[in-house]
Specification:
Blueprint: E1 2-5, H1 11-26, H2 32-41, H3 44-52, E2 56-63, E3 66-74, E4 78-84, H4 93-106, E5 113-118, H5 123-129, E6 132-133, E7 138-140, E8 143-151
Parallel strand pairs: 4-5
Antiparallel strand pairs: 1-2, 2-3, 3-4, 5-8, 6-8, 7-8
Length: 153
Amino acid sequence: MGIIKLKKMDLQNALDLVWIVFLEFEAPDYSVQGIEEFKKFISYNSMMKQFERGEITFWGCIVNNELTGVIATRGRNHICLLFVNKEYHRQGIGKRLFHTVLEECKSNSNCNTITVNSSPYAIEVYHRLGFVDLDQEQTVNGLRFTPMSYSII
């Protein structure tokens, strides 16, 4: 099991994994509007533009030459995607991906928190990682989320 920084050529594969996992585990908690909004958010063209401008960074977990998990950050400290293939749930992949982001953030002296807008499905995962709720669940454009934060200091 290895964590790598994903390149442009890996982006489509990463987004395919995100979409498959989203449909199975996240979509049941969302309205049709929310599902469509998420689909637009992870569209290849939109993500590629952000990737090329350096606004978003993707990391992936590779097991037996297969991409099994993905984490993406906006800037260094806002997690905007964290998805792990169903067959690899509860094997520490999400935790390893998060710790990669944590180490990246620690390498920047200006970074003292990591934030995420957690889906209902992932709240307990983030709590286990040490995140705390910043507010109650919100819904924007059909997307349900709870703002959360992880303090580095």
